[in-house]
């Protein structure tokens, strides 16, 4: 038999030494008094020293027992501290997450997702980078991306979000003065409508609700762009009507440089998707973020 004590024997020894009572140690450790006695006897046999004086009324450390206690205390405390730190690290995970988001939802997601997540998990470092173009999250080292569903590669795992921003048509006052304003959806075919193209090559269909009827309107125009910023600049320069997130042009609307049109219709909120590459080998921090997203009020399910 090895002369090196097992750690549970050290744990029992430290507990008995703390209380100087076999009975109290058994209560604290939730084991029977005979189990405590047997463990101490086995420890003394391994060390070939007597650690405790014990009688029916009292327990005290021997000289060797005091020396052993003095030597073992820093080792034992280090062990306990290490275990507590490991447990704390599991309940309060650390790590770094790199996330790509489009400009349109940066304020929304910071307020509703990232700030509450950071408060809940302060030891997780977030690197949030804004980009309106297509980002290959695998090739560029991102853990997650946030985009339209149409922009997400089909092999990705995606979780839907209701973004609480609406897509609607806008035009400049000068454009409307020169060309007039469409009175209904059908009249859009008479106007130059700036086209927004997805990475797939498709142009975005304009969506309307007319008395609960959901209408997808394919418009036409002589300018096709693939960023919201170019589309907005085109409208500010009086080139046509755009269909864009209201939050992106709020400053231009309030200053009078752009106007809402076709206000008799309702417009859909634009869902975005959090997406990631695989369920395998996901870090603890990433799993915490996924669960946080799923449990948030904005998440409506995985696809």
What does this structure look like?
By secondary structure, this protein is α+β, with helices and mostly antiparallel strands. It is 37% helix and 23% strand. It contains 9 helices and 14 strands. The strands form 4 sheets. Strands 3, 4, 5, 6, 11, 12, 13 and 14 form an 8-stranded mixed sheet that branches. A two-stranded antiparallel sheet has the order 1-2. A hairpin with a 4-residue loop joins strand 1 and strand 2. Helix 2 crosses helix 3.
Task: Summarize the SSE layout with pairings.
Elements: H1 7-19, H2 22-29, H3 33-47, E1 52-54, E2 59-61, H4 63-91, E3 95-101, H5 106-120, E4 124-130, E5 144-147, E6 157-171, H6 173-179, E7 195-196, E8 206-210, E9 213-217, E10 224-225, H7 228-236, E11 242-245, H8 250-254, E12 259-260, E13 269-276, H9 284-295, E14 299-302
Helix pairs in contact: 1-2, 1-3, 1-4, 2-3
Instruction: Please write the string of helix (H) and strand (E) elements.
Output: HHHEEHEHEEEHEEEEHEHEEHE
What's the pLDDT, averaged over the residues?
A: 86
Structural class: alpha+beta
Low-pLDDT ranges: none
What's the short story on this structure?
With 303 residues, this protein is of the alpha+beta class.
Any key phrases for this structure?
303 residues, alpha+beta, Arc Repressor Mutant, subunit A, D-Maltodextrin-Binding Protein, domain 2, two-stranded antiparallel ribbon, 9 helices, 14 strands, sequence-specific DNA binding, DNA-binding transcription factor activity, WH-like_DNA-bd_sf, LysR_subst-bd, transcription regulation
